[in-house]
Each structure stands twice: as C-alpha cells, then as structure tokens.
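Our preliminary data section would be incomplete without showing what the modeling component actually yields. Below, a chain of 101 amino acids is followed by its predicted structure, encoded as tokens that our downstream tools consume directly.
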Amino acid sequence: MGVPAVDVLEGVTAGTFAYGMYANPKSGNQGHIAENGRRIKRDLHPGYDPDLTSTAREILASFASRRNAIVYGLVFASLRPDSTDCLERPDTWVRLGSKHS
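Predicted structure:
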C-alpha cells in the first residue's frame, strides 16, 4: 500500500506550510493543507466558494483562482510562476502510492 499524499505533506512541512491536491476522478478535486508537520484542513474543494470556516487566505485563493483547482493551489501557496507553462505543460506528473491500493 502506498503513502497517502497528505502524509507526504505532513512530512515535508517542518517550519513551513504546503497545499496539496488530489484529482479524484469519482468525487472531484480534493485539497489538503499541512503546516509545521501536521494537517490543518482536508477534503477541501479547491477553487470553489469558501465556507463559513474559511480563512482570509482561502477566500482570496478562491476568488483569484476562478474555480481552477491548480491555480487555487498556486495562489494559496503564494507562488507566482513566470509563465502558464506549469498549468498547461507540467514538467513531471508524480503518482503517490501504489496503483493497486
């Protein structure tokens, strides 16, 4: 059985934070936020309307991304790519976990 993506986020966020997204073919995009080695929020629907518990950062990311899940992750993480190549032609796709899990 593979390592869940959220566990990877928790493992790489000592002293920082990360936003991760899983493109679930059955239920749609799922977002996860981890900070300082622990999960803050999970099962988010990136790019869609914020709920009553949303932070200012989540509200801004929702507004700025206009329902684009990948752009939401970039905005949330304060990343500013030089071009849209990362959205249209990523360098690498990485599968986390086994395909038979």
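The two ends are 5 Å apart (CA to CA). The helical segments are 5-11, 56-65, 69-76, 85-88. Preliminary results of this kind motivate Aim 1 of the renewal.
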